[in-house]
Amino acid sequence: METLIQAIQNYITISPEEEIIIGRLFSPLDLKAGEFLLEEGKVCRHVAFIREGLVRYYINDDGNERTIYFSKEREFVCNYMSFIPQTISDRYIQALEDTRLFIISYEKLQSLYAEIRQGERFGRLAIEYVFVTAIKQLGSMYTDPPATRYQQFLHIYPDLVQRIPQYYIASYVGIKPQSLSRIRKRISGQH
């Protein structure tokens, strides 16, 4: 629970009494590699915090999986487009390795906003971070060549290159695995 408290304290100040409330509102959940936190066609019912492990977000595009994001330890995980309005999700969130989470339901998150002095501020700041990250990523997909997107991936996720299969990285960058191999060779030849 300590890592969750520290992550929330990156956004707001929490009293010892509020730490107890947070401990009551979040529950542990463990996923095995390959299991889903969320599947397409279901409503996202929880925001999760990754204690240990790694997940990927992806969509099914006519039978092709398109990886759109990764989240790792000490990060919050959610499909906010489904969670906030409580509507059907168009994406999957899948554990890439055994993953230990703390989860909070939509209803309990509303309690957190009401019971924690700066709870609503925490929610706003966390969503603002997600929004800015998503806009940057979307802009990059339209304006940057694949080599630049791969270098951005290396910059954002330097510790994940060895943990994520190359075909998921290629999908995230928006290219085929063979093209990623060529980009990686070119980059390694420059160093």
UniProtKB/TrEMBL annotation:
Residues 30-114 form the Cyclic nucleotide-binding domain. InterPro entries: cNMP-bd_dom, cNMP-bd_dom_sf, RmlC-like_jellyroll. SUPFAM superfamilies: cAMP-binding domain-like. It comes from the Bacteria. Coiled coil: none annotated. This is CRP-like cAMP-binding protein. It comes from Pedobacter cryoconitis.
